[in-house]
Structures are given as C-alpha cells and as structure tokens.
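User: Design a sequence. Structure:
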C-alpha cells in the first residue's frame, strides 16, 4: 500500500532531455556505485529548476539543473544551492544528502548537482490516490510542518558557521527593492505595472527585523512525508532561495501559497498543495500558531502577506517571461500572466482593507 503512495517522476518533457552518455561517465567518475542502465524521468513539480530522477538497478538519485534561456542574476545557482545544503546537513536533519556537483557545462550544457532520493509522499495539489487524510491528521500535518520551519528559524547559524550564506542585516529592504526590480525587468505588455503595490511595500517596511536561516519556498509540495505516517516529515526540498533573512517574511512567502477551504475559484484553480482539505489550518491560524510558538504578537501581518503575494507574482512573471520570449515550450506556462493579475489583485485587496 505505502509504496504506491511514493512520489514518482514521469516522462521527460520535450526539449528538456539530458545527454545520457556524458552524464553517465561523469556519475561513474565522480560518485560511483551505479549498477545497470540509467533510466531518466522528470518531475513535473517546480517551475524554476529542472529536476530529474536517475534510476539504476541498485539505487536512484536526483539531479537538479537550471532551465535553458536567460536567467536572472543570482537565480538558478546550482553551486550555491549544493553548498548551502551541504553546510546545513550537520545542523538540520531534514536536508537531503548531497552527492556531487559540477560547473563543467560540457557534460549537460549547464551546471548541475546530484543528491540522494528520498522515498516518500509529496503533497502536491492533491494527496495521492488511496491516501485518506483524516481532519485530525491534516491538523497535525500543519503543526509538524510549522514546527520544522520554526526549528530551521532557530538554528544557531553563526555557531554552525553559516554566516556566509547571506548578507543578513537590511534583508527586508533588499527583498523589496530586489523583487520590484525583478518584476520590472520581466514585465510583459499583458500584466499590470504594480506601482501601487510596490509603493505601498516601500512605504511600509517594518521598523525592525530578525535575522535567521530562511528557506523562502517552504510549502507542502517541498516536503517529503513518510509513506507509513504522513504526519512525519522525512525531508525538506528545494533550497534554491534559502538565505539569511527575516523569519516573518519567510512565513509570508509560505502564506502566499496557502489556499484555504473558503478561497475563490482562482485560488483553488492554481493551488499547488492540499491545504484546503478538512482539518487544515486557515492562513490566520498558521500565523497565530507560528507567532505563539515564537513568542511574537501577530498584531499586523499585512506587510508580510502583501510581500509574499507580490514576490510570488514576480516569480510567476519571470517564468512567464521565458515562455513569452520562446525560451521554453512548456505549455503549463502559457496563461501564467493571468495569475500575475490575480496575485496583484490579492495584494491590493489587503492594502485597501487597512
């Protein structure tokens, strides 16, 4: 029963194939212990970097590489992603083991890294068929997921020698100016200017910030759950955006993806995690739980909610920009500009209720 619930990759998308022979030669020379032929499949989740499963007779591993086409400065940095997870391994036990990295683009045409494959359930838009989640289990999942995020936020990054992974102080201001710049650079004719949202964020920067390790893409479809107990997390994936930042901004990022049971059609149509099933927390309950555990007063979370939604709008627009300029043929990106409109509408709705 449990093996049928384990997340699986599917056929490689056209135009995103890997060069099998040079890759196999690199794997044998740099990692080793691979038996039999290599079978390559690709994960549909993740709209930024491309993620593949490399299956051999004796084991399977995961390969991550950047997409083809123009990339934003600092984005899709496989070397940084690999080194950061390698550094986190001793202090955060949910990071997958890193196996190898190369910046030699003669192998695949881009840098890439290889890591262990964690066999478990990944809660995407829906839980896998055959898995019934009771309301009390769903509630427990939320608590466990938030507890693990809190654990990450409380890692002594200086004591662990991780002060080098980000600039730290001034993070909030850098994030706002950075995402405004990225949105403007990726803007196409069919999305709003977002000036009202940008101006509001700049005018409402928090007076103080806390610095900790932040994941910045922490959501259920980046968690691996144990197949025999879905309320237990065995891994946290996708550390591409992790850095030293503000924990409430990290939570704001997570809230942007959190679709709850009473949300509108557009939210339900674009959801990427099953947070709307009976027993799951609402966004406000998530905020209240996190703040209570951290000893904070959730007086005014509007800035962090608007930031998370605007940042997501910028990420979506960057992805759509690649499709618009024919740098990718993935049909899933065709109508992403509509979602940008919706996210900015949500931003303005929060701003206007003040």
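Assistant: Done.
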């Amino acid at each position: 029963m449990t093996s049928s619930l384990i997340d699986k990759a599917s056929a490689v998308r056209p135009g995103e194939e890997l060069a099998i022979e040079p890759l196999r030669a690199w794997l044998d020379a740099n990692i080793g212990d691979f038996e039999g032929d290599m079978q390559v499949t690709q994960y549909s989740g993740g709209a930024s970097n491309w993620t593949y499963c490399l299956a051999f007779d004796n084991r399977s591993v995961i390969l991550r590489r950047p997409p083809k086409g123009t990339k934003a400065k600092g984005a899709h940095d496989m070397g940084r992603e690999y080194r950061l997870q390698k550094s986190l391994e001793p202090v955060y036990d949910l990071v997958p083991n890193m196996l190898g990295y190369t910046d030699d683009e003669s192998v695949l045409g881009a840098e890439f890294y290889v890591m262990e494959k964690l066999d478990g359930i990944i809660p995407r838009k829906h839980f896998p068929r055959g898995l019934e989640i009771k309301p009390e289990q769903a509630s427990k999942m939320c608590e466990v997921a938030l507890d693990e995020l809190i654990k990450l936020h409380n890692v002594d990054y200086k004591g662990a020698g991780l002060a080098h992974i980000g600039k730290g102080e001034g993070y909030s201001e850098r994030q706002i100016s950075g995402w405004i710049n990225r949105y403007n650079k990726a803007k196409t004719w069919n999305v709003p200017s977002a000036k009202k949202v940008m101006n509001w964020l700049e005018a409402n920067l928090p007076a103080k910030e806390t610095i900790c390790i932040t994941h910045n893409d922490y959501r259920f479809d980046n968690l691996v759950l144990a197949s025999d107990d879905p309320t237990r997390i065995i891994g946290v994936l996708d550390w591409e955006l992790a850095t030293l930042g503000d924990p409430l901004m990290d939570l704001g990022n997570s809230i942007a993806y959190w679709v709850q049971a009473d949300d509108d059609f557009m939210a339900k149509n674009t959801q990427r995690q099953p947070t709307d099933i009976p027993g799951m927390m609402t966004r406000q309950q998530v905020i209240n739980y996190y703040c209570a555990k951290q000893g904070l007063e959730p007086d005014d979370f509007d800035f962090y909610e608007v930031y998370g939604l605007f940042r997501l709008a910028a990420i979506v627009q960057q992805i759509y920009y690649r499709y618009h300029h024919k740098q990718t043929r993935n049909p899933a990106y065709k109508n992403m500009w509509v979602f940008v409109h919706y996210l900015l509408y949500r931003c303005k709705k929060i701003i206007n209720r003040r």
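The chain has a mean pLDDT of 91. The radius of gyration is 20 Å.
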